[in-house]
User: Fold these one by one.
Assistant:
Number 1:
Amino acid sequence: MITSARKRLRNDTASSVVLVGVALALGVGAIHYYKALSQLGQTASSNSSLSFDDREIAGGNSVIVDQAAAYEARSLIPVSAAYRLVSGQRLRVRTELTEKYVGDWFRYFLMPRRPRPDARWIICYGCDTSDLGGVYVVRWHDDNGISIGQLR
Amino acid sequence: MSAHSLVGLVALNLVLLAVGGTTLYALRGLRSWNEALRLAGLAYMLGVALTGVVFVLELVVGLSLSLPAILVTEAALAGAGLLTGHVLRRPAPGTKLTLRRISLAGAAFGGLAIVYGEALFRSGRLAGLYEFDGWAFWVPKAKAIYFFGGLDHQFFAELPGSSYPPLVPAFEAASFHFMGAPDVVTLHLQFWFFLAGFVAAVVGLLSGRVHALLLWPPILLLLVTPHVLRYGLQAEGDFLLDELIALAALLVGLWLVEQRGWQVAAAAVLLGAAMSTKREGYLLAGCIVLSALAVSVQRARAVWPRLLLATGVALALTVPWRVLLAVRNLPGGGPEAGGTGLFSHADRAWPSLRLTLSTLFDFDIWLVVAPLALVAIAAALLARRRQLGFYALLLFALAVAAFTWTTWAFPSLPITKEASLNPMPRLTGSLSFAATAVVPLLLGAAWPARTGRAVR
């Protein structure tokens, strides 16, 4: 009889703990379910309000300083060609991520074009064009010190 | 960002479902269409796991992952599943489909999940690629596979994370092929399919075993955690790893109780895929296997050989990638501190453990997922469901130890919850997902008299 009572007590305790667990999940889950729907709705709205360029560049917006340069590079450099990105101190506007990551971002954006240290297509990110090792023919440039061209 | 891309993604995921369906038929048979529908989520995730592992093997041996190659691969996998099931005389669903009545609670929670799924889908529909790791190496690797067919020597050597197996990039490349372009915006929805498949798999596996009131709240809780809301659809490997590990943990838990061979076989496929997704997969798979071995020590002769065989199969699936890393002289991704380096960085041990626990129990990251897991473990142990309870408890403790080691063994990682500096918030995802998958099983085991089927 004592064994049976102990078993019942244990089962009741276990059931109570189960109820605590379900209440915890339901309580916190219910509050945050509505918050989640609201947050997801806001994310959807802000994503849909972006321009095509902002959406496509996305993370690059905190790295590159001129979206036009990215699109010009993609249109000027043939898909089978190689390029090199040369950065320097002549960039007029920059973010704190530009110098470190601009090469990585262009590598992602310009694929299947290959980055190569000896490539003749140049994306000059504030570079000193006299150090490029040849005659640099500019095909496009902006006012920030970014240019795209070829070495002859 | 077009309807064409969306249709392509849907087609890819239907193919994965078909492959997984035939795999499940080969492993266990499907007695009815009701059962097939109930287990569709598991079938889909098995299709993802098997396809992913085969994609990695194909890339390693130098095959081009073009659209025709993908279609032939999937047709071969589906054909092999059908043939195996036929040879093993597995039960087939036949032609009859009877609709079973679902409980009011099940319908209500299911409805909430569908509303959530729709909101998550909309949030990812036009999402840009903002995550650093996403554009720095996950998606560039996928683009390299898409444009060049295989593991391009230059990109796979120069891109960060070169030791990571290419399972996720291969899926992303397959998505690009099905979408018809490297659409990195719509790509986010592929990860919506993975998450939806995971939820459907857990619900399908447990709905016949656990009451809806014990099953759904932990799952919905996980779905609304800040971490899932913020990062759930990012085009990286972390969430797929979490989903594969969690399903494997659940299947091993079920196998410990029910001892059905297909459960451990399916777990082996999922663990193989998890280890082919990210290197942390090895650690987490080890936690699952060690926990299962420890709690089955009294039945070692019956349980251990099958569990060790499954582990061996899962590990064998990852060997070709390790060989390729060695052949190409690429880093293997081992710890910075090396084997004995932990002792020279002993001062990081306690801060690393503190970081692990404070991240796991951080309300602003995982809400109350971890406390709920501990409550469920306590309930199972109080109800004398010791095997299941200790399995979950050991899994929890070993995973905490593993996460602690990851920060301790990489001295360059600062002790911080900042996701861009230390991967701890991402790492703890695997345990949060695994806990969520196992919690309903524990709660159901501790509440046997009032549910349909008791789980011992």
Number 2:
Amino acid sequence: MAQTVIRTQAINLTGLWRLKILPPETKELLDIMGELRRTGKVEKDEQTLDTLDELAKETLGILKKKGISLTVEDFLKERER
Amino acid sequence: MRYIDSSVFIGAFLPTDPNHKVCRSVIDTIIHDRHPTAISVFGLAEIGDFITRNISEKVGLKHVTTLQRMENLQIYYAEDFETFMNSVLAVSVSTGLPGSDAIHFVSAISLPEVNEIITLDHHFKRVEDQIKVTILSEGGVRNED
């Protein structure tokens, strides 16, 4: 009877980096994930709400430029597919 | 502790969404009132992919790193992927919950402290007999239990 299950180690972040699947812009994300993996914690940002306000402005600008109005409904439709 | 579905964070990030205010108020409450909450690493992936694809990579990355550094938000990682995914498969088949929603549900019930899922996704009504499900709407919240 043929083997049905394949078990293997998942590729890790170093492997993804070496394969150039991850661009240099992801460095902060990788650093945080590395820190979370090593210590289980990461330095918290006390200015999260200000950062979100800035991101909301930037997001609105990009959406206007693209001429689209993105909503959670779009996300939920994609997730359901 | 409350488990926050990705849809709530996406609503909070999108100023064009009709539920933006109510979603943003959830985020404000988590930070100001020090409500301990959880999201899964899969949720971060969903948020990151949607924002990167529809807005920009830079904004997608910034949203995800902001959540990783957000006060009172804990990120759930499953220790045993095989066990986790077997549970996701069993839940999907037995409840009809879409696979990605089942990942969130299994994440939530794997954490003993979690007693409520906050979401904008009505599919979670399928598991409201298992856990308190709060579906946010433009006018506020609608408890499903």
